[in-house]
From TrEMBL:
Pfam families, sorted: Methyltransf_25 (PF13649)
InterPro entries in the record: Erg6_SMT_methyltransf (IPR050447), Methyltransf_25 (IPR041698), SAM-dependent_MTases_sf (IPR029063)
Segments forming a coiled coil: none
Protein name: Methyltransferase domain-containing protein
Keywords: Transferase
Annotated Gene Ontology cellular component terms: endoplasmic reticulum
GO molecular function: sterol 24-C-methyltransferase activity
């Protein structure tokens, strides 16, 4: 009986260790999806859960005709695709994942070829391809947790935004807090809303505000690829 009990404890411990390992790998791939199995799982999760969030936040951006819009962390490229549904818009994206660049380029191939979409590989803290005051709006979803250093990245967004420009951030800090125990790789740099708000103010952003919303509550479906359905797991 004691041996059986000991075996059960050992088995349970191994399973827990493997769970922590897999979750740690998932956390690492959230910021920079690889081309491996777990990276593919993360991309599938992005498509299933994150895509409606991205389309929703873009619907709240109040895009005007001809806007130049920057999306850091464009991932598989559905945000860029959504931005380009608005009249005469231009989309610029930057992401640190080579696999995501390739997927996003394929999804938006015609716009990339015409120059209406420009997709870059790199970190948002340095965007030499963008001139000062050259962007009307910046939009990103589930992205700000990963920027290091945060202040330098926000300062770069402030540099490229035109006077009066707007940056709209979508976050799920409650989910970040819930998954923090599995973040062995330290992927989540910023885990607190108030810290992020303070960093925005330090970077020069004015009228910094936040509100809690139910995703898709303001979506009309006019520009959304798949209507306004929101996965309940979001």
């Amino acid at each position: 009986g004691m041996l059986r009990f000991g075996f059960k404890v050992l088995t349970s411990g191994c399973r827990f260790s493997m769970f922590r390992y897999v979750m740690s790998e998932v956390m690492a791939n959230l910021s920079n999806p690889s081309s491996g199995i777990i990276g593919s799982m993360v991309v599938a999760m992005m498509n299933d859960i994150n895509a409606p969030s991205v389309r929703d936040i873009i619907s709240r951006l109040h895009i005007s005709q001809g806007d130049v819009i920057l999306e850091p962390c464009y991932g598989p490229g559905y945000g860029v695709e959504e931005i380009l549904r608005y009249d005469s818009t231009r989309a610029i994206g930057i992401d640190i994942s080579q696999p995501m660049l390739e997927v996003a380029q394929q999804l938006n191939a015609a716009a990339v070829q015409s120059g209406r979409a420009q997709l870059h590989l790199g970190e948002a803290r340095a965007m030499p391809f963008l001139a000062d005051a050259s962007v009307d709006k910046v939009v990103h979803m589930n992205c700000c947790y990963f920027w290091r250093p945060l202040n330098q990245t926000l300062a770069e967004f402030f540099r490229v935004l035109k006077p009066g420009g707007v940056m709209l951030t979508g976050t799920k800090f409650d989910a970040v807090a819930a998954n923090a125990p599995y973040d062995a790789a330290g992927a989540f740099v910023t885990r607190d809303l108030e810290a992020y708000r303070a960093a925005l103010a330090s970077a020069g952003f004015e009228e910094v505000w936040s509100e809690e919303i139910h995703l898709a509550s303001g979506c009309t479906g006019r520009n959304a690829k798949s209507g306004c359905h929101v996965d309940p797991r979001m």
